[in-house]
Amino acid sequence: MGAQIAIHASSTEARFFQDPATYPQIAFSATTSARALAFSIETSQNGGMITMNEPQVWTVIGVFAASMAVLITAFTQTMSAKFERVIDRVDGLKTEMVIRFEKVDQRFEQVDRRFEQVDQRFEQVDRRFEQVDQRFERVDERFGRLEARVDGIETRLDGIDRDVQTVITRVFPLDE
């Protein structure tokens, strides 16, 4: 014979008892509605299935719905917390990247300033070379004029040399 468990409830107290032949009697009290709850488990007649009345079914559905609501809430809170952590990490990475890019931008600005300085120095060197070129052109002009004068002097000296030779040959004739 299977074990039978039954709950009988009144408006003020509920008594739980089992088959005294199999198990000792256990009693407890709880406040319940005026409606009586009947819960019976017949393991031998229905193959171990639990039979419940309509209020019990609605109670099980309510407990299941409340459990699901709690689980969904806990899952949602857990996922929200994880998403917040991921968002915080992404924000941290974003901040770090912004800082690094700002440093890179500063370095580029420094390099740009250095290039501008080098460019200015090259412009100064170019101006100096232009000045040196102008000086060399003036020196070339002077050398050209000097060369012309030296050529003129050479021509005169050649003329004077011929005249001196002529005078020498006339003053000191060679004996022939």
Structure commentary:
By secondary structure, the protein is mainly alpha-helical. It has a domain at 1-51. 67% of the residues lie in helices and 6% in strands. The protein has one helix and two strands; from the N terminus they run ββα. The chain has one helix spanning 54-171; strands at 5-9, 14-18. It has a two-stranded antiparallel ribbon with strand order 1-2. The longest helix is centred in the middle third of the chain and has 118 residues, at 54-171. The chain is rod-shaped, with a radius of gyration of 61 Å. Residues 1-44 have low confidence and may be disordered. Keywords: Membrane, Transmembrane, Transmembrane helix. The chain crosses the membrane at residues 57-75.
Question: What keyword list fits this structure?
Answer:
rod-shaped, single chain, transmembrane, two-stranded antiparallel ribbon, 2 strands, transmembrane helix, mainly alpha, membrane, 176 residues
The value of Rg in angstroms is 61 Å
Q: Tell the overall outline.
A: rod-shaped
Share in helix: 55-70%
Largest sheet: 2 strands, antiparallel
Mean pLDDT: 79
Strand order of the largest sheet: 1-2
Beta strands, count = 2
Strand content: 5-15%
Structural class: mainly alpha
* Helix-strand string: EEH
The stretches of 5 or more residues where confidence is low (pLDDT under 50) are 1-44
Number of helices: 1
Q: What is the rounded distance between the termini?
A: 182 Å
